[in-house]
Amino acid sequence: VPLIPEDACEDIITEDGQLLVDRIALIKRGSCNFTEKVYRAQKNHAVGVIVYDNIHRERWETIMSGSEEEMEKISIPSVFVSLQTALDYKNHQIRPIAYKEQSKRTEFYK
Fold it and tell me: What is the pTM (predicted TM-score) of this model?
């Protein structure tokens, strides 16, 4: 689910006004480090995070960062994807599928 602010570097709310509980946060790269974004989403009860690039790139590089202390606090999965992947998701070209884990329904996307 998209967030406000998009980069999740401050207190966050979901774009649709619903809680982040049992949802995957879609967060834009920039303004603060990767682990801050993931940890902030986790504190708001997200079950996972997709951080997307803030520009189109022809060549991928390692561009995620964070402190060891923050990484130790994170217990949810996270991934970094291209801006195009995020735009496809936002335009619903990537459809949700259901995934069950420990009797919880969580939405994952492919």
Answer: 0.78
